[in-house]
Amino acid sequence: MSEVLLQKSAKLPGSPLSRFKRRTGLVLAVLALGLCIGLWLTPYQPAQANFLNRLAPPEPAHWFGTDHLGRDIGTRLLYGSFWSLGLALVVSLAGLIAGTLVGLLAARSGPFPDALLMRVTDSFFAFPELIAAVAFAGLFGPSTVNLVIALSLVSWMKFARLARSLGLTIGERDFVIQARLNGLTGGLILWRHILPNVLPSLLVLWTSSWSRTILAVSGLSFLGFGVQPPAAEWGAMLLDGKPYMQTAPHIMIFPGLAVLVSVLAINLAGDRLRDLLTQTR
Amino acid sequence: MPPNDPVFQLVGLTVRAGDKVLLQDVSCDIQQGRMLCVIGESGAGKSTLLKAVQGVMPATCRRLVFTPSGTDITGAVPTHSGLPQTRWVMQDPLAALNPQLTLGTSIQESLYRQNLTVQERKSAVLAALEDVELGSEFYSRFPGQVSLGQAQRACLARALIARPKLIFFDEPLSALDALVQKKIARQMEVLRRKTQTAYLVVTHDLGFAEAYADKVLVLRMGQVEAYQPCDEFFATPASPYAENLIEAARSLGTLSHANEAA
C-alpha cells in the first residue's frame, strides 16, 4: 500500500525550482548536443580560408555559403556560438551572482549597509551599457577580455535591486520567522529559506539579461570594440560581410539570423519559465 | 511540579507601536496540559499577544514566567529568540512552510537546537507525522503538493516534534474548511491530552473555545474584557461585551445548545 503511494508521489511534479532546473537543463543539453553533432559533422575549420571559393552562395558543399576569404559560414556560425552565446552567458552569470550577493547582503545586513550598497548600485545604473563598454575599450584597448569586464561591470545592478526587494519581503514571511524561532543562524536562513525563494525570479530576469547581453556582445563586435578577427563571433561576421552586402548578402543574413533566433529563443524560454513559476498555486 | 502551578504566567504585558497602544496590561496564565483561548475581533490584539511573547514584536511586561525553561523576565521581552521550549503554529500553513522545502525538512528544523544524528531526526519526523495521521510519503512532499489541512497538520507535527511545554496557536483553523477544522481540532485535543502540552490558542471561534478551552481571555481594542474559566465564561460572562459576543455566536448557531438555558 505504502509502495503504491510512494510511486504516486514520485510522479507528482517537484517544487517550482526543481521543475525549472529540470526543464532548463533539458533544453540546454539538447542544444549542446546539437552543437557537438554539428561540430563533429563539419569538414571545415572556422579560420580555414579558400580563396578559390570566396563569396560562394549556399551550395551542397557549403550549406550557408562562404565569406570573403572563402571560409565556411556554417562552420563559423557554430564556432561563433561559443563566442556570442558563451561570452554573454559568462557576463550575465557574473551579473547574476554579483547582483544577488549585493542585493541579499543589502536586504539582510541592516539599514546602513543597505543604504550604502543601494546608492552604489544606483551610481552604476548611471552608465548606459554600450557607452560604458565603448569607453572601456577606448581606455584599455578593444579586446574580448575588456569587453567581458566592461559588460559585467554594468550588468549586475538589476539583479541587486530585485534580490534586495525580494529578500526584504521574503525575510518577513512566516516560514522565516519560524526558522528564526527554531534557532537557525542567519546564514542558514539565507541559504535555505531566502535564496531558494528569490532565485526563481532572479533566473527569469537572468534569461532576459542573457539575451540582451548577446545583442550587446554582437553589437560591440560589429562596431569593432569587442571580439577581434579572425574569431568567428556573430557580430564580427556581420562586420566582415558589410562590404559585400549588395553582392553576397548571405554573409550577413545568416549571422544576423543566428543572433535573432537565439535572442528570441532565450526570451521565449524566459517567458515560459516565468509562466511555469507563477502557475504553481 | 504540582499540577496546579502555572507553567506560563504573564503579568502586565504592554505593546506599543509609536503612540498607539496595541495591548495594555494583559495578564494570563496556563497550567500544564491546559488550554487558554484568546478571543476577540480582528484588530483586538490577539495575534499581537503571540508576537510580543515570542519576541517578534517589541513589548514590555511586569513579569513573564515560563517555568520549563526557567525563563523569568521583567521589563522588555527579548526579541529575535523566542521562548525556549515553546512552538508556534500559525494561521496560514502555506505561508508558514517554505514552498521550496519538503515537509520533512521543514519539520526537522524544529529540532535544529538539539544535537541529533540524521537518522534520529528522520525517525523523529516520521513519528511526528504519524502522530498527526500523515503517512510517511508526506516526508518528501512539497507544501504545494498537499492540501491545506495536510499542511496545517505538518505544522502541528513541526510544533509537537520538539516536545514543547507550551504551543501557541494563531487561529490554527480559520484557513481550513469546516470538516477539516473539526478533524484537526480533535487531533489537537488528543495530542494535548497525550503529551500534556499547554496550549494558548488565539481564535475567534467561540464554538471551539467552548468545546475545548479551560480558560478564556477576551481582548477588545488591546484591553482585557474578560478572563474566566471556560464554563463560568459561557454561563456568566464578566462584561457586557463578552455577553454580546456569546449572544452573537449563539444566534449564528456556532455554539452548542448545552448552555442555552443559562
In short:
The complex is a heterodimer of chains A (281) and B (262). Chain A has 281 residues and is mostly helical. Chain A is built from eleven helices and no strands.
Number of strands of chain A: 0
Which protein chains make the most extensive interface, counting residues with beta carbons within 8 Å of the other chain's beta carbons?
A: A-B, 28 and 31 residues
- Class of secondary structure makeup of chain A: mainly alpha
CATH fold-level name of the largest domain in chain B? Rossmann fold
* Coarse shape of chain B: globular
Strand order of the largest sheet of chain B: 6-7-8-3-9-10
Share of β-strand residues of chain A: under 5%
Which radius of gyration of chain A do the C-alpha atoms yield? Answer: 23 Å
Low-pLDDT ranges of chain A: 1-12
| Number of separate structural domains of chain A | 1
Largest sheet of chain B: 6 strands, mixed
Calculate the terminal CA-CA distance of chain A, rounded to whole Å: 29 Å
CATH superfamily of the largest domain in chain B: P-loop containing nucleotide triphosphate hydrolases
- The assigned CATH architecture of chain A is Orthogonal Bundle
User: How much strand content do the residues of chain B show?
Assistant: 25-35%
- Fold-level CATH name of chain A: MetI-like fold
Quote the distance from N terminus to C terminus of chain B: 36 Å
- The topology string of helices and strands of chain A comes to HHHHHHHHHHH
